[in-house]
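Cross-posting from the chemistry board since nobody answered there.

I work mostly on the small-molecule side, so proteins are not my area. We synthesized malonyl-coenzyme A and want a rough idea of how it might sit in this target. Sequence and SMILES are below. Is it possible to get a predicted 3D structure of the two together?
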Amino acid sequence: MAPAHHQAAAATTVTTQDIRRAQRADGPATVLAIATANPETRRSQDEYADFYFRVTKSEHLPQLKEKLKRICKKSGIENRYTYVNDEVMKAHPEFSDRKLPSLDARVEIASNAVPELAAAAAPRAALLGLRHTVCRTILSLHGCYGGCRALQLAKELAENNRGARVLVACSEISLIAFYGPEEGCTDTDTLVAHALFGDGSGAVIVGADPVDAVERPLFEMAFASQTTVPDSEGAITVQHKKGGMEYHIARGLPEMLAGNIKRCLADAFGAIGVAARWKDLFWAVHPGGRRILDLIEEALGLDNGAMAASRQVLREYGNMSGTTVIFVLNKLRCRFAADGAEGADWGALMAFGPGITAETILLRVASGLMGN
Ligand SMILES: CC(C)(COP(=O)(O)OP(=O)(O)OC[C@H]1O[C@@H](n2cnc3c(N)ncnc32)[C@H](O)[C@@H]1OP(=O)(O)O)[C@@H](O)C(=O)NCCC(=O)NCCSC(=O)CC(=O)O
């Protein structure tokens, strides 16, 4: 080994700019693989109200049950996958009553179930067996924009670390926020949340400068941005309480999002000086609820069908919080691989969550999807 003063002298011939340049990738971050997974139990939306009122022992509240049935009917959801089943509720009757302490038991179940579900999706996107020196970052409590936030971070990491491959493993389990309806409750957040949320995980591999003949570039990530909707504080909140995680979803949320969507998109596209025509893009929007998709589609003047991938995911799985946009991107991948992008090779991935935070990623269909 050279003496220390020789090492220092050698280091001076290399500038920090050189080191930085050598670390940076040449091309944009690119989605190289996507996969998804769900728990085994599939529950039909038609039967959900019966299940929910039975396992939470709330049959004495028939009016609330009828209301949940009405919401389920309008939800655009046909099925959801869930860890909550008769067995779990039999073992943990305290989950039904959010006044009883149950957070420890919920976290204990989730601490196994969340990584298990993520691990079910991840090998479908990558062969696991990662070195113990692989860097990990955990994001939690982001609500429905968590998956998009993770993809944005993956983009930063991939573009700033030549050769890096980033595995985004996003897993959501609604058990943490599952409890019974409250008698005399005028605030119906609980019913709406229980009509919408489901469980699932999505895994995405992001990297820049794909290796020819080994990797398959699916979507280039051209630009990413985050916007906070003005005066929206408190419109969506999630809070851990002793009886489980409590949700608040403001009644006017679909209107609020639709009223601000153009501004959010202008913030994103204005920053890169691109004037896109919304109709010319493909859309991967977080399907927070059927009415949110309806109103955004209307506000942007999109064709009926522009949100087909989001609607399909909502119908087949419900709102799986942060992981849902990964399912939507996977649906688009399948559609484009089968039918081509029909001229719309630029698109916007969008997700919303507490804040209200709106995240946007400008995507471009990449060579691994075109001509296949
Ligand atoms: C809930 C719906 C499917 C209901 O469909 P419609 O609005 O077309 O039907 P509707 O008007 O007949 O409503 C059916 C019943 O639901 C009630 N209702 C509707 N929206 C409600 C709300 N936000 N809170 C409480 N109750 C609500 C109505 O009063 C009505 O009750 P009655 O029948 O008694 O008159 C829809 O409104 C929807 O998709 N809303 C968006 C849901 C949402 O906010 N999702 C975001 C989740 S949060 C997220 O994604 C991000 C995150 O978590 O971070």
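Reply from a structural biologist on the board:
Welcome over. Reading the output above for you: The pocket of malonyl-coenzyme A is lined by residues 67, 70-71, 74-75, 143-144, 188, 192, 196, 236, 249, 251, 253-254, 288-292, 319, 321, 352-354 (CB under 6 Å). The CA atoms of residues 53 and 62 lie 9 Å apart. Happy to explain the token format if needed.
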